[in-house]
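User: Show me a protein chain along with its predicted structure.
Assistant: Here is one chain, sequence first, then structure tokens.
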Amino acid sequence: MIRKLCRETGCDVWFPFYPLCMEHCITETYAMVYECYRKMITLYGGGNVSTCGFSSGGALALGIAAHNNAQPEPLPQPRHIVVVSPGEVPWNDAEKARMQALNERDVSIDYAFMVTVEKFMRHGCKNVPDYMLSGSRGDFTGVGDIHFFYSADEVLYGALPDFEEACKRATVPYTVSARPKMVHCYCMLPIFKEAKEDFAKIVDILKK
């Protein structure tokens, strides 16, 4: 998939092998990916870097913008952020209810996992910023635009209204594509009609 993105976007694609929360706190993951982002900005310049991610990678692709705004001297924000089914620990009653309502239709991820995953993400750390656990609590001010892709039948689709509110708070333009009867991160498998179509949309966004 990464090679396909390289070929079809004409862009350099950086794929950070970030520290996993099975062995590290999420703060270490953010530190590594943010340093990667810093090097990209240094090399390509502000306005020439976008972030794209799937599932947990989608959470990071969004989270880097929030993390950047939390710094004393922020870097230029991503030109585009493209996320497919970004991970999110549910943090309010409405979001929890929406995720639970979708649980029976999701064949990939159980709602209970999205609640218990916080323990793994913290990995014993107490002082973890809210936006690292629940990206919709972050500040996306300054991002060029954000594009969300979901299956309309997955648990994580229940987080979309909170991400939309975050975009509105930051006055960031955003788009949403939600396909019924798809599986979590279906765009990663561009071998069937719906996935091919939406992977092509991702390519078009990143080519701009």
